[in-house]
Amino acid sequence: MSSRPLAIITLILAACATMAAAPAAEKAAAKPATAAAAVAAAPALDSDGDKTFYTLGQLLSRSLEGFALTPEEFALVRVGLEDGVRGRGSRVDLAAYAPKIQELQNSRQAEMAAREKQAGTAFIETAAKAQGATRSASGIVSTTLEAGSGASPTATSQVKVHYEGKLIDGTVFDSSLQRGEPASFPLNEVIPCWTEAVQSMKVGGRSRIVCPSELAYGDRGAPPVIRPGATLVFEVQLLEILPESTPESTPAETRP
Description:
This protein is an alpha+beta fold. The chain folds into two domains: 4-97, no CATH class; 122-254, Chitinase A, domain 3 (Roll), CATH 3.10.50.40. The protein is built from nine helices and seven strands; from the N terminus they run αααααααββββαβαββ. The protein has helices at residues 4-19, 21-29, 35-41, 48-63, 71-85, 94-97, 99-128, 176-179, 192-197, and strands spanning 133-135, 141-146, 158-167, 172-175, 183-186, 206-211, 232-242. Strands 1, 2, 3, 4, 5, 6 and 7 form a seven-stranded antiparallel beta sheet that branches. Mean pLDDT is 85; it is low at 1-6 and 13-39.
């Protein structure tokens, strides 16, 4: 987490460097309208250049996700970015205020995690009362959707599964079904919720698993989609327990 503010600053500096030629070009052409005004007046992304600059904005926005900026705060960020891009110099002592970025991010993420946990707790309580649901000592809520008849894996088994992960609002953030192929990985190399819950399944079975945040991605989340403190919902179909010598087919970054 400590490297995030540096990464954000690096991205913003890269944006400034990329756009640094814009003021000179505008002055030379003596055009009264700025690039920002032109985009606001005609937001269509017609050329590769338009799409490239739009993509730059999208990437910068992802770096700011953890700050949960209000419209007023975002306006201040825009002022700072524009001052840097236009070569106007800083209105504050950057050396004094740059360290405060980490403090701000930590504070905002803690607030975000608290809100997510509160919503997640209510969701889990409701899920636990549903017909057929069971709740483990660790707080995982599992519901068997289709009973399996095969063996159950151990914590170190390599499994082949189909799954779909959702936020509590129903947003799908990961799905082997959408990718069109099952995933395979050792159960001890995924989030703790999976390691525990899938061991209670049998091959051929399908379950709905509700994961408390502390057994998923915790207070760090998995930006930009999974917020800090988020409770997650998975529907998992256990297809097979693979031999130990089977090569892993699913990259670590696409596993639960």
